[in-house]
Structure prediction request, 451 residues.
Amino acid sequence: MKSRVQFVCQQCGANYSKWVGQCNNCGEWNSLVEQVVENASDKKSALEKGKLSGKTLEFVKLNSVVPSDEKARLTTEFEDLNTVLGGGILEGSVSLLTGQPGIGKSTLLMQICAEVAKSRDVLYISGEESAGQVRLRAQRLGANSERLNFAASTSGNDIAKTIESGEFDLVIVDSIQTLAMDEISSAPGTVSQVTNCGNLMIRAAKSSNTAVVIVGHVTKEGTLAGPKVLEHLVDVVLNFEGDRYGGFKMVRAIKNRFGSTNEVAIFEMAETGLVEVQNPSAALLAERTNTDGSVILATLEGNRPILVEIQALVTPSNYGYPKRTASGFDLNRMNLLIAVLERRTKLKLSDKDIFVNVVGGMRINDSAADLAVCMAIASAVAGRQLDEKYVVFGEVGLGGEIRSAFRPAQRIAEAKKLGFLNAIGPRTVHDPFVLPAKDLRETLNSFLKQA
Prediction:
């Protein structure tokens, strides 16, 4: 069979018959790598012959199959992480863990290994670190079980063969961007290497019923490095996010075939490793000082209610173009809310620099944070304060109206638990604890008082 050469883009996987400087599909420069492929053009395909290759599949009655959720799961020491995973790591499943460098991925995985290795055989495979380096981390985290094994390898073929042997209940692969297959000439981390190594390990895991956790790198934009097809191939995709220098760190499931994607596990880094935060609301509000520009938001992280402080600072602009900066909140959304404030209230913000910060390194994606951000900005510019015993939630429309929020009962329950007297929220919430807010202008006039 003849062979030919093609050039494959390592960013999007597009194929070209000759090398070009820029990929026409994704626009990346110098991303094409030469690959040798088999050329079967001299043979007629099975369809041209009018015949189909293959054989009839063997099938079973669906109601006779044991559901996957009834199989034993490998539980970690973190209850919230078990919840995010749908009850633990399922046997035969393949999970992908991604996150920024230094966020604590290897620390989390070593702590998982330490717990699982108390009763199961575990293999930690590293393509980035030596045995001595991993041993130092294991000692610091107390991972001293005899059933915890280590191997250093960057061969996708060898790792897949080891998984297929079925000798281990859990295999950690750190990381897939360092692996390469012998049959492919491109460098580790390229689209073809990541895709094919991922396929090999997934087939090996399913055939041997071995649970596999793969570590994936991220790009500077924070997305998974490599092809999107890798996320489709695996069963679970976990994203480890937060500030690597401090604050809370969160693990959430972007994809989960065996559980919900609405759960989140919250951690903080200690000397002995990652520790679950049982009451994040109390920790976030412990150092709060009630000043103008400070508002407490009742938000949700997955299904968990959390109270977090929203801070705003408004100063006169020294330049012709005012500066807008947001930390932990979407900047485009903040600009939209500033436009609503200017149009629907009497506040003049066109000559003001505005800074918004979510305390504790949290990243808020909740639409119900709109009202809290608006009230914090208005409080800062007017020098007025919100009562320290009030929490706020609600979405703000372009007309300045306050719209309903998701799961208000959970937000209210969390506020009551921490001793707050009232919540300012949408009129659609029928609870005496909630002070109804009709529109933005009326809410600011009613609840922001002179300091």
